[in-house]
Design goal:
Radius of gyration: 17 Å
CATH superfamily: Jelly Rolls
Number of strands: 8
Largest sheet: 4 strands, antiparallel
CATH architecture: Sandwich
Strand content: 25-35%
Order of helices and strands: HHEEEEEEHEEHH
Oligomer: single chain
Number of helices: 5
Length: 156
């Protein structure tokens, strides 16, 4: 119970839980699972099928594509949602950069929450915002890479 209170405190800082009442956050925390990984542990591999949404409660997770760090997820950040939603393999690996505490919901658990109207509407809206943020970051990175490529191609 003491551990649950700690996670409820973490949850206040998490965008995915914005707009939820405290009892709704508690419900989500009861349905999902809390996980701990040590620095260097792999959470999932690029190409691996996944159906879980992960939320960083504490620590830093590296998101890597073909060995290159493309993103760092910190407290409050979510990852893994695209594989859960699209039913496709992970397009990147996730590795604990530091010791991390994660919270995870499986696709089935999300569907269970979706049966509760208000809760599902808020959760889906927040997932959309998280996805939008990830896409915006990806687009920015693509633009930077294109600019670098253009500079390389133009140079003698």
């Amino acid at each position: 119970m003491k551990d649950l209170r700690k996670y409820e405190q973490y949850a206040k800082k998490i965008p995915l839980f914005n707009g939820l009442e405290p009892e709704e956050v508690s419900r989500v925390l009861h349905i999902g699972h809390k996980l701990k990984y040590h620095a260097g542990d792999t959470i999932f591999f690029q190409g691996q099928m996944g159906n879980n949404l992960f939320i960083v409660f504490n620590g830093v997770v590296n998101i890597e594509n073909e060995g290159h760090i493309i993103s760092k997820c910190r407290t409050g950040d979510a990852f893994g949602e695209m594989s859960m939603i699209n039913h496709r393999p992970h397009c990147a690996s996730a590795t604990a950069h530091t010791d991390v505490k994660l919270f995870t919901l499986s696709e089935d658990q999300v569907k269970e929450l979706m049966q509760e109207n208000h809760l599902s509407a808020v959760m889906l809206l927040n997932i959309i915002h998280v996805l939008s943020s990830h896409l915006e970051t990806a687009n920015t990175n693509v633009a930077k890479l294109r600019k670098k490529l253009d500079n390389v191609v133009k140079s003698p």
